């Protein structure tokens, strides 16, 4: 922790404050004077201490760390921070829950955000993932509707099981992620005991311009540890900050959490004929198709000094790429490329990327975009246009990523289905992989929430999705829900 500064308390403009207990009045016991500048300044600043919370993932905790490359991956990407075995890159990782507001409890059934910033010498690379390899939907146009069902209902002001199951029932592509969420991993014991996933497919390209599609996995070295529904309900009541506290205290005592970093790599030529659409965020690439390859280690080893400055104001964007890494045509990812920068401009402001936690640490940003609210004058008198003849920064002529082939006409249509694609196949496979005990807990967790829905048609539609994934899954869920609904 930073040592307290000494010297007199001052106003915001630096003048010494004589009295911080009593405001200035007209006479003894009289009304307060407008010239009581210290009081007015304090009240005004206090009124403006909050910025808008994140519209999703509002609640979170972050820490700095180090990524170490342990395998040569230059055959797949020319990204400099991935160029030499042993190379280390500073990182900042923010964990979060998704649906709850800023002051909500940590120990809830919800995906966990896993937003990772690599401060590379070619600029910051952000990998904004979750602790789940898949997601509920596969087109960004559905995201605001989905999140509306997770947040507070406009009439009741509360989260409503009715809305959640109505949306999921009508969005069968959610069946895989919902099976995951209501299984054992749905409530992690802490931020240290979960895996992270990039979730989307991303493009890597090497020096020769060859393209590969990759998926990232961060496997916790602490081991997976989860809470049961009952344990989580109890913990949430006792300590809303359980995950945040656990992470900070572990780092304070030098027990640095770490993750083994793996990638699945698909040569570009495989994509068109792969049995699943490789850009579908509701599907994994089974490991027997593309085995995970270990490439590095991520360790968290430094707590932020100031939660507001470094965690609340931190920004992560899936559009923050570096040379050798780029987007895939995943329709969810494409929507996210816009959404995050837009959120940052609204939530933190147009100069959010100048803040210490957000700016590049291993290079500097040399952009001609400048000025606006809270601009700090960092460019001094340098020219603010390009091309110029004053030796200013110049373009490189090499895009960060390689071109992708496109065909046909513009259209509103789902991403193409491949040979084995449907909304239920991987949900069914996941269910069948579970032990008998795991299946029982999954059914109990699902039934407990579905039974809160009042409308029969919404209940039936929700159960029918699980029935299509696996007949036994549907049958057991139906029985459990009927027993609870009476
Ligand atoms: C089209 C779909 C999505 C949209 C439009 C979207 C939009 C957003 C927005 C607006 C924020 C708040 C950003 C801020 O205020 O700084 C956010 C946060 C976040 N989202 Fe998404 N999101 C989408 C899907 C996803 C997916 C699929 C994942 C994970 C695979 C994800 C992971 C996260 C994480 C981890 C954060 C918190 C970042 C932080 O810690 O600051 N989102 N999302």
Automatic annotation (TrEMBL):
InterPro entries in the record: Catalase, Catalase_3, Catalase_AS, Catalase_clade1/3, Catalase_core, Catalase_haem_BS, Catalase_immune_responsive, Catalase_sf
EC number: 1.11.1.6
Catalytic activity: 2 H2O2 = O2 + 2 H2O
Residues of the Catalase core domain: 10-394
Keywords: Heme, Hydrogen peroxide, Iron, Metal-binding, Oxidoreductase, Peroxidase
Biased composition (Polar residues): 1-25
The keyword Signal appears for this protein: no
Oxidoreductase among keywords: yes
Annotated region described as Disordered, given as residue ranges: 1-29
SUPFAM superfamilies: Heme-dependent catalase-like
Enzyme class of the recorded protein, top EC level: oxidoreductase
Family indicated by similarity: Belongs to the catalase family.
Name of this protein: Catalase
Organism: Streptomyces polygonati
């Amino acid at each position: 922790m930073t040592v307290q500064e000494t010297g007199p308390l001052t106003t915001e403009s630096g003048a010494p404050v004589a009295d911080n207990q009593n405001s200035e009045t007209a006479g003894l016991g009289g009304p307060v004077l407008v010239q009581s500048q210290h009081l007015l300044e304090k009240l005004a600043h206090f009124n403006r201490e909050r910025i808008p919370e994140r519209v999703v993932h509002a609640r979170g905790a972050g820490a700095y760390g180090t990524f170490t490359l342990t395998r040569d991956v230059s055959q797949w990407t020319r990204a400099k921070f991935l160029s030499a075995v042993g190379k280390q890159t500073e990182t900042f990782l923010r964990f979060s829950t998704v649906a709850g507001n800023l002051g909500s409890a940590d120990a809830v059934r919800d995906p966990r955000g896993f937003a990772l910033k690599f401060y590379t010498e070619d600029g910051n690379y952000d990998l904004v993932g979750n602790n789940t390899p898949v997601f509920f939907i596969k087109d960004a146009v559905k995201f605001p509707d989905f999140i509306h069902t997770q947040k507070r209902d406009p009439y009741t002001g509360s989260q409503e099981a009715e809305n959640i199951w109505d949306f999921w029932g009508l969005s069968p592509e959610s069946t895989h992620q919902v099976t995951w969420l209501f299984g054992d991993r749905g409530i992690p014991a802490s931020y240290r005991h979960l895996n992270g996933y990039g979730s989307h497919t991303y493009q890597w390209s090497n020096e020769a311009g060859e393209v590969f599609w990759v998926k990232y996995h961060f496997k916790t070295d602490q081991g997976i540890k989860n809470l049961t529904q009952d344990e989580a309900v109890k913990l949430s009541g006792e300590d809303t900050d359980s995950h945040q506290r656990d992470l900070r205290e572990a780092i304070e005592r030098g027990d640095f959490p770490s993750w083994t970093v793996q990638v699945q790599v698909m040569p570009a030529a495989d994509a068109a004929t792969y049995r699943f659409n490789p850009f579908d965020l509701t599907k994994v690439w089974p490991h027997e198709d593309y085995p995970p390859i270990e490439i590095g280690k991520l360790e968290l080893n430094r707590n932020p000094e100031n939660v507001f400055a470094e965690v609340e104001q931190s920004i992560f964007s899936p559009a923050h790429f570096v040379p050798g890494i780029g987007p895939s045509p995943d329709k969810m990812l494409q929507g996210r490329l816009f959404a995050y920068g837009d959120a940052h401009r609204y939530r933190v402001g147009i100069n959010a990327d100048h803040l210490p936690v957000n700016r590049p640490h291993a290079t500097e940003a040399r952009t001609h975009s400048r000025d606006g609210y809270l601009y700090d004058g960092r460019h001094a008198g340098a020219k603010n246009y390009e091309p110029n003849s004053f030796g200013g920064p110049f373009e490189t002529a090499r895009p960060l990523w390689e071109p992708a082939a496109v065909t046909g006409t513009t259209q509103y249509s789902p991403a193409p289905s491949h040979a084995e694609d449907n909304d239920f196949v991987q949900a069914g496979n996941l269910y069948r992989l579970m032990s008998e005990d795991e299946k029982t807990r999954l059914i109990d967790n699902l039934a407990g929430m579905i039974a809160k829905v009042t409308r029969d048609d919404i209940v039936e539609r929700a159960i029918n999705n699980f029935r299509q994934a696996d007949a036994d899954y549907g049958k057991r869920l139906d029985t459990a829900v009927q027993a609870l609904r009476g």
